[in-house]
């Protein structure tokens, strides 16, 4: 059973999840959180749903949250950083989710597939979508960080069965969802304060890279921006790879194109600003920013 009371009873934070809005069923917790933010919700307001019917993932895909099994939650934050730093919120939350899972399942060894997936035993168990909302006159109004965690789910739709898993399928352990929400919020509060202090990932970088499943592996960079420059539409293989960073600004994805140019290389880590460092097969080092390109493993999902 999931409830605001059971989460609050296990929570030790000062502002993260200071106000918990629980719903048995909702369309999208990100939409709910945005509406609360517009009406003046406090920094740290958390929306949690037992069942989410119209959840949004990156690349415009849906995120299934059947009742009684998973966590769908969205956190309202009012960042005191610049707009260019906002994509790093996805990385901060990814680290926090991984740490929260490791606290409730002590033998879990979570990884992060840059920039917005948490991985356990080779399967995606969490996706993150950050939505930035700007004031009409400019500047940040708020950001909503949506998190979907597959906790006790065992049956997955055919189209994601080869990629998705849950904490239960990957470890055999059934997890109290209330405890997991509390642990993630506690980790996020501490990590967010470090991020806001420096405006970057410098105080979190070592812990993030320790979980980076792409690190020291061959990756493929799919770059829709270069396709427009390098070749006309008919000369480039047509694929939709969409947004890499799980970031929307005022409801619009920050990137997405049909044409791509593919480059391969080895992932070396991340920069202080959260960009992925890739040494291309040509020998060139490149900093890949979330939201500009898609990065995937050469030999599979990770």
List the helices and strands and how they pair.
Elements (H helix, E strand, L loop, with lengths): L3 H5 L10 E8 L2 H10 L6 E12 L5 E4 L5 E7 L10 H17 L5 E4 L3 E4 L2 E12 L5 E10 L17 H5 L5 H22 L6 H6 L7 E6 H7 L16 E3 L2 E2 L7 E10 L5 E5 L4 E4 L5 E4 L5
Parallel strand pairs: 1-2, 7-10
Antiparallel strand pairs: 2-3, 2-4, 4-8, 5-6, 6-7, 7-8, 9-12, 9-15, 10-11, 12-13, 13-14
Helix pairs in contact: 3-5
Describe the protein in words:
This protein is α+β, with helices and mostly antiparallel strands and 302 residues long. The chain has 2 domains: 207 residues, 2-Layer Sandwich (BirA Bifunctional Protein, domain 2), CATH 3.30.930; 80 residues, no CATH class. Helices cover 24% and strands 31% of the residues. It has 7 helices and 15 strands. A hairpin with a 5-residue loop joins strand 12 and strand 13. Helix 3 packs antiparallel against helix 5. It is globular, with a radius of gyration of 18 Å. The relative contact order is 0.16. About 6% of the residues have low confidence.
């Amino acid at each position: 059973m999931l409830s605001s009371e059971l989460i609050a009873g296990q929570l030790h934070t000062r502002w993260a999840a200071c106000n918990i809005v629980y719903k048995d069923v909702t369309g999208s917790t990100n939409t709910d959180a945005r509406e609360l933010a517009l009406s003046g919700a406090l920094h740290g307001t958390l929306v949690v749903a037992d069942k989410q019917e119209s959840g949004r993932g990156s690349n415009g895909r849906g995120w299934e949250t059947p009742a009684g099994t998973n966590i769908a939650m969205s956190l309202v934050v009012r960042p005191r950083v610049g707009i260019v730093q906002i994509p790093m919120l996805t990385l901060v939350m990814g680290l926090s989710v991984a740490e929260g899972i490791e606290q409730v399942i002590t033998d879990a060894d979570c990884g992060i597939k840059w920039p917005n997936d948490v991985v356990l035993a080779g399967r995606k168990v969490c996706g993150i979508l950050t939505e930035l909302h700007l004031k009409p006159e400019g500047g940040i109004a708020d950001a909503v960080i949506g998190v979907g965690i597959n906790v006790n789910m065992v049956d997955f739709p055919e189209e994601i069965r080869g990629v998705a898993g849950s904490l239960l399928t990957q470890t055999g352990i059934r997890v109290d969802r209330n405890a997991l929400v509390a642990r993630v919020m506690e980790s996020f509060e501490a990590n967010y304060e470090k991020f806001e202090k420096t405006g970057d990932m410098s105080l979190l970088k070592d812990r993030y890279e320790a979980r980076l499943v792409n690190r020291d592996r061959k990756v493929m960079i799919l770059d829709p921006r270069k396709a427009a420059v390098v070749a006309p539409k008919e000369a480039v293989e047509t694929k939709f790879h969409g947004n890499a960073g799980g970031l929307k600004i005022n409801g619009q994805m920050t990137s997405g194109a049909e044409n791509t140019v593919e480059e391969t290389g080895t992932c070396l880590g991340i920069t202080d600003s959260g960009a992925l460092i890739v040494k291309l097969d040509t020998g060139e080092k490149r900093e890949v920013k979330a939201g500009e390109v898609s990065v995937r493993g050469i030999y599979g999902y990770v």
